[in-house]
Amino acid sequence: RKRAEDALRHREEQYRLLTDNMVDVIWTMNPKGEFTYVSPSVERLRGFTPQEVLDQPAAAALTPASLQIVQSEMMRVVPLAMQGAQNYNLSPASYELEQPRRDGAIALTEALVKVLFDEAGRFSGFLGVSRDISERKQAEEALRETRDYLDSLITYASAPIIVWDTNFVITRFNHAFEELAGVPAATAIGQTLDILFPAEQ
After folding, report:
1. pLDDT per residue over 17-66, tens digit each?
2. Does pLDDT of 70 surpass 50?
């Protein structure tokens, strides 16, 4: 019994070390959509302690737009899950959600959610892992803005501009080049550079 107690205490210490220091937030919900567990990392993500999150309505963890997404998805998923594990696709689903922080800011998160079933195959709730993707989304937005800017430069430049890939397939050229080459963009894009240099007859 002493060895079993020591082994249990060791496992609990390992579990606490993992949950206290991980960046992602692990959470569970019951079939009603109420939080039953939230890892300590939620405080780094949202500024609320795990107990505060458990004491709040689950809806408080989401912005109105994200709450609508989740409610719509639960209306789809729960009836299927209630039919039992044998009738449900067990693959986790991923969602991009906005979560309010204590300081009033919004945390952009990606939630990977798995439906849980008990040993008898009955629906027992949800297991989720949420991670902060704010920096990734900011980088994606900066990249999109850069691409839009470059597209505008190419489109409206007075100098002829042509773009092709590593296989010499034309991916873009502007109106100035279209006039120079005498080949419509709709015809040339997707073709190799050979279309601009036809073989002599």
Report:
1. 566 656 799 999 999 899 999 999 999 999 999 999 999 999 999 999 99
2. yes
SS3 annotation, the chain: CHHHHHHHHHHHHHHHHHHHHCCCEEEEECCCCCEEEECCCHHHHHCCCHHHHHHCCHHHHCCHHHHHHHHHHHHHHHHHHHCCHHHCCCCCEEEEEEEECCCCCEEEEEEEEEEEECCCCCEEEEEEEEEECHHHHHHHHHHHHHHHHHHHHHHHCCCCCEEECCCCEEEEECHHHHHHHCCCHHHHCCCEHHHHCCCCC
**The two three-digit tokens of residue 134, written as one number:** 């704010």
Decide: pTM greater than 0.70: no
